[in-house]
Amino acid sequence: MGDTSKSHGSHVDKTSMQAFPVDQILDNSSTDFDLFLEAAGGLTLYAQATYKWSKDELTRLLANGHKSLFYRQAETPRVDFYLRIHKQVQVDVLSHPRLRILNLTEAAAELTRVLYEYDVTPVVIAKAADVAVAMVQCVKQDPTCITALGQLVQHDEYTYYHSARVGAYALAIAVQLSQSDETKLAAMATGALLHDVGKARVDRKVLDKRGALTPPEWDEMRLHPVHGDAMVAESQLSVVPRQIILHHHERLDGTGYPHKLTGKELLEEVKIVAFADVFDALTTSRPYQVCRTRFEALAFIRDRLLANLHSDSYNALVEILAGRVKQSA
After folding, report:
1. What angle is formed at CA 159 by the lines to CA 157 and CA 162, rounded to 5 degrees?
2. How far apart are CA 36 and CA 292, in angstroms?
3. Is 48 strand, coil or helix?
4. Residues 6+ apart with CB under 8 A from 268
């Protein structure tokens, strides 16, 4: 019999349960649904949501003959979510940064896809944090790796890949600006990866429209930061990522949304992500916008937008794209 020291509660009816293979649980991941262990002729609660798994425990369960745990049928959507969120491109941490950043972008894009179908849970927050940490390590090793982030071939993929690229650009800018604290960088990257999560609550017809939005449609679109903040309200996200989600469309002169804050009221991390957000939007092909090269986008920002964006981010990105990068600590 396996180790049931964590088991508690009475036995439940197995006929109302579904099997969940133990070998599909990933080391260091969290399951946000109850899992039951088969023992003494019945099922007993073994891992209560939200449960953090270790490799040793998973190995021990398998060694003791517990190939499956069981979950309630009603929690099938959460189980499907867990499987999708962890079925991603495997990233070789020893690969060249320019290849690694592409793989991390793919992983983050899949994360965004799942967010449009499921609620924000501790599992997705943890997964976003994992991707953010990996991005920090990659970009600190070589900030110029962001030049490998090519333009999307299909505009309808913009929604999914946009947040990933914004995270990479923001990290490269922050590192160029001599920010080296990996915990702070990871918090900023997590916010960048989740900054558009509120768009999951925007009508898909508005989100996917292939032309200019009408004023009422813009009103709906401008609510996405507020929606995003509400979606993560019960999460364990720290102040920085939450501020990024809520304020990434604010502008230095107070003309942004949703709260018309000025530059003095915005965190530095918010200003960096807001700049990266604009830069990526300008360099991506969409039905209602001409796609610009990176240098055309920088020129457009300099001539038309820089008064209301973070000038330090602009200068840092110019240096990075010119290959003049600072060595991180």
Report:
1. 95
2. 54
3. coil
4. none
Percent over 70 (pLDDT), the chain: 92
Q: Who contacts 69 (Cβ-Cβ below 8 Å, separation ≥6)? A: 19, 20, 22, 35, 36, 37, 46, 47, 61
State the residue for tokens 């990257």: 189
For CATH 1.10.3210.10, the residue range(s) in the chain are: 88-321
Q: What is the pTM of this model?
A: 0.85
- The residues, ordered by sequence, that sit 6+ positions from 140 with a Cβ below 8 Å of its Cβ are 171, 175, 180, 182, 185, 328
Q: Which of 153, 147, 154, 151 is nearest to 168 (CA)?
A: 147
Residue pair 294/172 in contact by the 8 Å Cβ criterion: no
DSSP at 286: B
Spans in the chain with pLDDT lower than 70 = 1-11, 88-90, 151-156, 287-288, 327-329
Give Cα 32 to chain centroid, integer Å. Answer: 18
Instruction: Kindly state the greatest CA–CA separation across the chain.
Output: 73
Exposed, middle or buried by CB within 10 Å (0-12, 13-18, 19+), for 204? exposed
What count of residues does the chain have?
329
DSSP codes of every residue in 82-111: HHHHH--PPP-TTS-HHHHHHHHHHHHHHH
- Whether the CB-CB separation of 185 and 238 falls below 8 Å is answered with no
Place of tokens 């900023």: 188
Q: Report angle CA 27, 133, 282 to the nearest 5 degrees.
A: 130
**Residue-wise pLDDT tens digits, 55-104:** 999 999 999 999 999 999 999 988 998 888 877 656 777 899 999 999 89
Is CATH 1.10.3210.10 what the domain over 88-321 is classified as, yes or no?
yes
